[in-house]
Amino acid sequence: MKRLFLLMLFLPAVSAICEIPYDGVAFDHSTVFCQNRYVLEQGIRLTADNIVVDCGNSILQGTFSSIGITMRDRKNITLYNCHLAEYTTGIYIRNSTNIQVIELDLRKNIIGLRLEQVTDSVFDDNYDISLFLPIKTSESKNNFFRFKNKRIGGYYCVWNTCNERTEAQFELKQDFESKDAREDLLRILKEGIIDSISV
Question: Is the pTM of this model over 0.70?
């Protein structure tokens, strides 16, 4: 009973810690979005290494005029729990490594994922209903792709792994899950270590 009471005291404080993504904003820190539907014509950018971004099951919606989420020259970023709709490209990543994109819902984007010079990254447990292509890659290798709603194949599977994870990729995702990143992120936010958004 004592544990339940402490948990109940902790929950309201944790649920109040979230950020609202604004159109074109650049996140240079780990964050959790406040769950909602956001029309972001210019999308958002992730501009720092070693961060975790939890969209909190929010819907980021475009107007078919830009990219939903952009990462350039990055490493060690985890992105999860996002719904991206009606962008020219749902997620665009360039010259980056060790990126994890997990449990995303990509709907009505012209291209779901677009990667250029991306290596050693995992795109797993995502859902895709793109209008043109689920994935477009250029000079990207040693990545893993798997969607919940379909098996994929194509030129990008020549230099990357599609549908079935290798042992190394399995260990990478297990490591992410075993760290309980969400609790760590909420602890960091609660302690006030993260307190700013750069535009």
Answer: yes
